[in-house]
């Protein structure tokens, strides 16, 4: 066991002494699966949650099933704050009267609301420094309240440590992790993710298209120019 893993376990044991009920951001990916497994080992009550761009995607149901099958935990679902921001910014939709006056929904106030709704005093997620410069900038910009109420057990882990932990705990590596384009499919309208959904989950793509009809342009552009990846 690496020093980073040992440190994370020690930190969680201490946090579990003062936080009985913990909220866990769970996407179904390997990082969030590690965090859920760690939380289930040390906390009395674990509340996993995920956010969806549009409800009812089979992609979401498939990747969240392990939480119930392995831990007997029901994953709560909430609309992703990015949904409202997409509508406000008129991304792939016609303008909606009044939406241009809405303020942008920021992540931490939204997560704080989810914590209030679930009666949790601590939130865990699977973000890591090794995810890239965006993550490191995010960590540096956090306020005091967020640092106090949100903990990241994998913050200093490297990918090999995540994979080793999954192997040691016999956690299945989600198939979607093998495709970088699948990383945020279902919760993002980035070009690669829309194309991945179109090619691999057409019924889910159609459900998203009904909410954001102009994503058809992403597929049409690929077809018109004969591109392999958009």
Description:
This protein has 230 residues and is an alpha/beta fold. It has 2 domains: 3-177, Rossmann fold (3-Layer(aba) Sandwich); 179-230, no CATH class. Helix content is 51%, strand content 10%. The protein is built from 11 helices and 5 strands; from the N terminus they run αβαβαβααβααβαααα. The protein has helices spanning 3-18, 30-42, 58-71, 81-88, 107-118, 133-140, 144-149, 159-168, 191-200, 202-211, 216-225, and strands at residues 21-25, 45-52, 76-79, 122-124, 150-151. A 5-stranded parallel sheet has the order 3-2-1-4-5, with helices on both faces. α2 (30-42) packs across α8 and α9 packs across α10.
List keywords for this structure.
2 domains, 230 residues, five-stranded parallel sheet, Rossmann fold, 11 helices, 51% helix, alpha/beta
CATH superfamily descriptor of the largest domain: HUPs
* Class computed from helices, strands and strand pairing: alpha/beta
Task: Return the string of H and E elements.
Answer: HEHEHEHHEHHEHHHH
Strand content is 5-15%
Count of discrete structural domains: 2
CATH topology of the largest domain: Rossmann fold
Average pLDDT level: 90
Determine Rg (CA atoms, Å).
Answer: 19 Å
Largest sheet: 5 strands, parallel
Helix content: 40-55%
């Amino acid at each position: 066991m690496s020093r980073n893993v040992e440190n994370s376990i020690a930190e969680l044991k201490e946090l579990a002494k003062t936080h009985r009920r913990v909220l866990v951001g769970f996407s179904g990916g390997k990082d969030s699966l590690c965090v859920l497994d760690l939380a289930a080992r040390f906390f009395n009550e674990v509340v996993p949650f995920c956010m969806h761009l549009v409800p009812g995607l089979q992609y979401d149901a498939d990747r969240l099933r392990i939480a119930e099958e392995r831990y007997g935990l029901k994953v709560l679902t909430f609309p992703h704050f990015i949904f409202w921001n997409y509508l406000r910014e008129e991304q792939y939709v016609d303008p909606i009267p009044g939406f241009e006056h809405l303020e942008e929904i920021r992540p931490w106030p939204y997560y704080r609301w989810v914590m209030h709704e679930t009666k949790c005093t601590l939130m865990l997620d699977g973000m890591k420094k090794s995810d890239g410069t965006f993550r490191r900038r995010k960590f540096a910009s956090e306020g005091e309240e967020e640092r106090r109420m949100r903990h990241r057990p994998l913050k200093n882990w490297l990918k090999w440590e995540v994979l080793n932990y999954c192997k040691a705990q016999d956690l299945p590596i989600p198939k979607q992790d093998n495709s970088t384009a699948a990383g945020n499919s279902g919760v993002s309208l980035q070009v690669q993710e829309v194309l991945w959904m179109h090619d691999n989950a057409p019924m889910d793509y159609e459900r998203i298209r009904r909410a954001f009809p102009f994503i058809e342009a992403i597929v049409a552009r690929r077809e018109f120019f004969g591109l392999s990846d958009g």
